[in-house]
Every structure is written in C-alpha cells, then in structure tokens.
C-alpha cells in the first residue's frame, strides 16, 4: 500500500499534546506513514524571529498532507502567528475550502436541551483564501483622536465560484442535497451580491440540489434553535469562522470539532487541524481532548483516498463517545488517545 | 406630567401588528403621548420610489423618540430599505449605541437545557454608526469572471471611544461591573488594535470595572455553552448584529429581544425597535409576538427618564412570561398585547 508523506506542525500549547494522539491513531490504521515534524510556532518565533521561512513553506509543498495542532500564544502580539504562519499556510497553499463538519455524535452531551443527533448533521464549507482574511486595510494617525482604522473584505468571482462549486458537489453527495448560502446581503451589498449571484448561476447546473439563503445573524440563531434547517452551508471566511464555533458549541464542544483546509485542485498539500486553539490555560496538563484532532486525521485519510481507513477512525471515535457518557472527564489526553487507538487497531 | 412626542414607523410585515400592541401598552402607562405615524417602508417605496425623504428625516429630528416596527420585504431588492431607510436613520440620527439586553426571564423556555435566568443576564453595547455598516466598498467588472467586490470596515477613534465609554458607564451601573470587548484582533489587526487600545486606555478611568477580551468566534460559542461569562459586552456593528441574534436565541427567541438605537448625547431622538425583522411569512395572521416591541417601549420610557414607568412595563412582561408556561402559543398578537396592557393598567 502507498506511503503517506506527512508534515506535522504541532504548534503551541495543547497543540503538541493532541497531535501526539492523532499520530498514534494514524499509525494504528495500518497505512504506512512517514512523518516529519516542524517546530513552527511561538517558541521558534521567540528564539529566531521566524514565523514561516520561505524555505520551510517550499519544503511543505512536497508532502501529501499536513497535520496541524494549534497556533498561538499570549506571549506573541495578536495577529503575528495567525497571519504570518497559520493564515499564510492557508493562503499560500491555496486552501480555498475550509471544511468543517458540524455533527452531533450519539451519546454526546449538547447544551441544547432537545437536540438529537439527527437534528445536527451539517457541513460548513467556509471560504479560506479571501474576504476579510486577506489582510487588506490600514491605519491612519494611529494613537491620535483622529485615528482611522480600516479592514477590507476582498471577494473575487474566481474565489467565490470555486468554493461555491465545491459546496454544490458536497451537497450532491449527501442524502438531503440542500445548500444554504450564509451571508449578509442586505448590508454587505457588494460582496453579498457577488456571492448570491454566483450561487444562483451555479445552481442551474445542480437541479437536484435545493438552495436556500440565510443572513448570518439569522443563521447564527438557527444554529441554536433550528439546527435541522441546515445540510451543507457555504459562506465566506469570517462568517464561516463564527458559525463553525457556534456549530462546535451545539455539537458538544470545541474538543470534538474537526476541520480540513483543503486544496481541492491538489496543487499543494491540504492541512488538517482541530478547530480549537492552543488553549494555553490548560496546556501541558493532559486535560485537552484529542478527539477533534483524531477526527481531523479521519478527514485527512479521506482526502488521501483512504475512505475505509477514515471510516474506521470515525467509527472508533463514535464508539468512544458513546462510552463517555459514564465518567469521561476522568481520562487524560493520552488515555483518550490510547482508547481510540485500541479501537482502531482492534 | 410631560407630554411625549413620539414618531411611529410601523414599517413592513409584522411591524404594523407589533407596533400597535406596543402603543397600547404605552398608553396604559398613563403618560401623555402624542404619536405621529410615518408610512415609511416597502409600500411607500413601491408607490413613490421614496425610502426616507430628507424632509421626513428632518421632521423626525423634532420628536422625543421614535418607535419602529420592522423594515424589509422580499419584493424589494436586498439592501435598499435596509441601507436607505433603517441604517440611514441609525447613521443620520447618530445612534452610536445599539443597546441590546440579553436576558432570560423566569419561566421562559430556552433551547439551552441547563441555563437558568441568573446565567443569562447581559447587555450588548453594539456600535451603530460605523464598521462594515458604513457602506464603503465597491465592485469592479461586475458579472465577469474577473469581478472583484469589496466591503470596507471603517473604524474611527472618535466612534470607538464614545461607544466604549458608554459601555464602561453601563458596566459600572450593574452589580457585576464586568465589560468584555468582543472582536477578532488576531485577524482584523488594524481595527482590532484600535478597539483593544481604546478599551485599555478608557479602562484606566474605570478601576472598578473588570475588563475582559474575547474573540467573536469564541464569544459566539460561549453564548451557547457559558453565557454566565458575560455581563456587559462592547463590540462593533457587525459582530454585535450576530451575537445579539445568538443572544435572542438563547434567551427564548427573537420574539422577546428588544433594542434601543441610542443617541446618548441627545442631539437627535433615539429609536426603539424589536430585534426581529418583518417576517413576511407570518405577517397579517396575528401570529407575531409583540413582546419584543413592548420591551422596546420599556427601554424608550427609561431613555426618556421615566424609570418607574419603564419598570412597570418590564414587570408586566415578566409576569406575563411566567404565565405563558401554560398554553401561550394559543394567544394572538393582540391578545398578548391586551394581557400585558391590562397588567400595566393594573
Ligand atoms: C486562529 C484564527 C486565525 C483562526 C481563524 O480565524 O480562522 C481560528 O479561529 C480558526 O477558526 O481556525
Ligand atoms: C435589517 C438589518 C439591516 C439589521 C442589522 O443588520 O442591523 C438587523 O439585522 C438588526 O439587527 O437590526
């Protein structure tokens, strides 16, 4: 069987801890994996001033995929590691689909009193390479009473159409075949118009997909009180960031939310990471839940064409989650990883 | 006692229905109110092409306050009524504080299984006159594969500082005295830096207020799984739009969410409106819940210095909500209005 060449970026805080468990599970799958670890993150930044050297970025292009833990530390001013490391990876490797399933597994406790697993089963297709994340903007007269700070959302037909097409394909592959555009067309009229027109036009090629539209404010509300409205969602970079965290909350917490930064054209490796951050407050204590990372590993396997292996990992997680109903909070990061690994191997 | 001069804009859809109940309650309070109704909205737009004529806007400046129902109809392209009527009112009347309490009243059903009233009691101070709502942006090569559409968030020291000061004052007036800035400083680095620096600087003048920071994505999650984290929140126009809808969802639904578009300097009348929209799907059927409008009337009374009257309306709503636990869905818009009116009249 083929050999997966994997670049691993554990990153900061709990990143290292959860990635270790993800790799354990990956090995148990039985596929040959060759991993190389990159020490990018806060520590390297403090020691060398480097976030993502060009040579490293070039090297990363040579892998089949990247597994990332978490990036960010309070010792580094906000934005530096995010922009120059995490977002640079997403942008330069053209991860134009940020794929984030929102799924309530049976047995998982949700803050929603009445939601059942069949009510929360969606996939958010978040645009990953433009919008307000482009970094456009500036500041004039900083620190004075006349200061003006701007941020610009940049949206292109090229960028919107490709992610919308991906979302339609995704919707077509699911039983409900429903795609909802989430935006704020009544206020962000220029960008919203481009998104809405693109969805309308592409929808003509997908007569079997039902399309719907929802403003971001209403969608955020429906995630809480009518999650069953949604199947596949397509949305811009910032709205996708926000609703996938609401999604994580309703589907049992940030400890379970997986994601893939996908380059569907395969011109560069895709990158898989838990939705959660580096959580410096609990780092190094074995308290982090590695499940989100393990589910991200399943997405990685699926992306590499190993659907059976991916399903096996997801099933192992599902089985573990059912058993958590009794006494789950007592297990460490490593114990959860070990238990899921045993299920995958077994 | 003084005579309130009130401009009423019922607007579209359920707007007319809920405003009628709000006015009924207002009259029952016993304060003398002189109302003038303005037919702004979709109907007028279709008949005359007018959204908000300058002469009408000037006239509106002469009132003590404005009560607004809801604006928007699917027959009008997205953005027209929102930008040229609703947002024009907020911007031109300098409603720089969009005040949105998020409060779970006893007896109200929340989708959160375990939340109690003491867990959900916050106030969102949403900036109302700048950010992405400024309407800045544009489109190039519309309708071609080379289209680029931009939206710009404009943030000024002037605009940020005044709303931040209002939020600190609000926090100081509440028992917990906690203020949380919600933004996305790690991605929106220019605007985020201005907001964060402003909160830091102003906080020195409020040593008794505890300040905190939360990214919008994390805050959206915490609204669902740790709402008790928050007391007063200050945030920009778009983030405030989104989290107050999540707030409405967790506090029992959009039918209960009130808001005030406040001009704290009183250079123009403030405007009070339910957070919900015109809901064309249920318009004209007596199905809309007028409670959000009635609570907005309470905010209006409070703004005009009638604290006792405001408290009386809020208490009447609170009492009605406790009784709804049995059979509330059977009442019409008008019946709910009548019942609350009867309680206010006492
Ligand atoms: C860390 C941050 C830049 C990132 C984002 O906003 O995309 C994170 O919140 C996420 O969702 O992966
Ligand atoms: C109708 C729309 C322009 C408005 C907004 O986005 O502010 C509404 O959602 C609100 O929250 O009052």
Automatic annotation (TrEMBL), chains A, B:
Keyword annotations: Manganese, Metal-binding, NAD, Oxidoreductase
Cofactor(s) essential for the protein: Mn(2+); Mg(2+)
GO terms assigned for molecular function: 3-isopropylmalate dehydrogenase activity
Known EC number: 1.1.1.85
Keyword Membrane belongs to the record: no
Limits of the Isopropylmalate dehydrogenase-like domain: 5-340
Coiled coil: none
InterPro entries, alphabetized: ICDH/IPMDH, IsoCit/isopropylmalate_DH_CS, IsoPropMal-DH-like_dom
Keyword check for NAD: yes
PANTHER family: D-MALATE DEHYDROGENASE [DECARBOXYLATING]
The protein's name: 3-isopropylmalate dehydrogenase
Species the sequence originates in: Planomonospora corallina
């Amino acid at each position: 069987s083929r050999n997966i060449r994997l670049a691993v970026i554990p990153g900061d805080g709990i990143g290292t801890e959860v990635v270790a468990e993800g790799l354990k599970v990956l090995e148990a799958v039985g596929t040959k994996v060759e991993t190389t670890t990159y020490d990018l993150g806060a520590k390297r930044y403090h020691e060398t001033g480097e976030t993502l050297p060009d040579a490293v970025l070039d090297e990363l292009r040579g892998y089949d995929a990247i597994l990332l833990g978490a990036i960010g530390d309070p010792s580094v001013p906000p934005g530096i590691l995010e922009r120059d490391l995490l977002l640079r990876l997403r942008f330069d490797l053209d991860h134009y689909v940020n794929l984030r399933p929102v799924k309530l597994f049976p047995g998982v406790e949700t803050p929603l009193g009445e939601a059942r697993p069949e009510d929360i089963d969606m996939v958010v297709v978040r645009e990953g390479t433009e919008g307000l994340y482009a970094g456009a903007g500036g500041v004039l007269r900083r620190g004075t009473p006349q200061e003006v700070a701007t941020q610009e959302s940049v949206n292109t037909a090229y960028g919107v159409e490709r992610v919308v097409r991906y979302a339609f394909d995704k919707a077509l592959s699911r039983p409900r075949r429903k795609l909802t555009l989430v935006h704020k067309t009544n206020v962000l009229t220029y960008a919203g118009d481009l998104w809405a027109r693109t969805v309308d036009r592409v929808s003509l090629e997908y007569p079997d997909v039902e399309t719907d539209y929802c403003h971001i404010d209403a969608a955020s509300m429906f995630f809480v009180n009518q999650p069953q409205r949604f199947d596949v969602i397509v949305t811009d970079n910032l709205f996708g960031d926000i609703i996938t965290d609401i999604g994580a909350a309703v589907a049992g917490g940030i400890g379970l939310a997986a994601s893939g930064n996908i380059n569907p054209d395969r011109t560069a490796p895709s990158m898989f990471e838990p939705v959660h951050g580096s959580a410096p407050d609990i780092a190094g204590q074995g308290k982090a839940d590695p499940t989100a990372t393990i589910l991200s590993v399943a997405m990685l396997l699926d992306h590499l064409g190993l659907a059976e292996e991916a399903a096996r990992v997801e099933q192992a997680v599902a089985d573990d989650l059912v058993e958590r109903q009794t006494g789950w909070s007592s297990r460490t990061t490593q114990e959860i990883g070990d238990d899921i690994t045993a299920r995958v191997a077994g």
